[in-house]
Amino acid sequence: MKTGETILSVKGITKLFPGVVALDHVDFDLRVGEVHILVGENGAGKSTLSKCILGAYVPEQGTITLNGTKKSFKSPRDALKEGITAVYQEFTLIPYLSVAQNIFLNREYRKKNGLLDINRMEKESRELLKLINCEHLNVSSHAKDLTIAEQQMVEIAKALSFHPQIIIFDEPTATLSEREVGSLFEQIRKLRASGIGIIYISHKIQEFTQIGDRISVFRDGRKIATFGIHEKSTEEIVNMMVGRNISQVYQRNPNLYSGESLRVEGLCDYKEKVKHADLVVNKGEIVGLAGLVGAGRTELANLIFGIDRRKAGKVYLYGEEVLGKITPGKMVRRHIGFVCEDRKSKGLALKDSVAWNITAVSLRQLFPHGLIRYKKIKNVAESYRERLKIAVPTVQRPCKFLSGGNQQKVVLAKWLSAHVDILILDEPTRGIDMGAKMEIYELMNQLSLEGKSILLISSELPELIGMSDRIYVVHEGRIVHECKRGSAEFNAEDIGAMMLNVYQDAEGKAEWDE
Amino acid sequence: MNKQLSIKKWKIFKLPPVIYMLLCLVIIFSIATPQYLSFQNIKNILMQSSTLMILAFGQTLVVLTQGTDLSIGAQVSMVTVAWITLARKGVPLPVGAIIVLLLTSCVGIINGLLVAKGKMPPFIATFGMQNVINSFTLLLTAGAAVTYSSNIFLIITESSLFGIKAPVFIAAGIFAVTWVILNRTKFGMGIFGLGGNPEALALAGVNTVKVTVKAYAYAGLLAGVAGLLTACRVESGQPTAGAGLEFESIAATLLGGTSMREGRGNVTNTIFGVLLLSVVRNGLNVVGITAVYQSAIIGIIMLSAIIIDSLARQSQERN
Question: Do B186 and A108 touch (CB under 8 A)?
Answer without folding.
Answer: yes
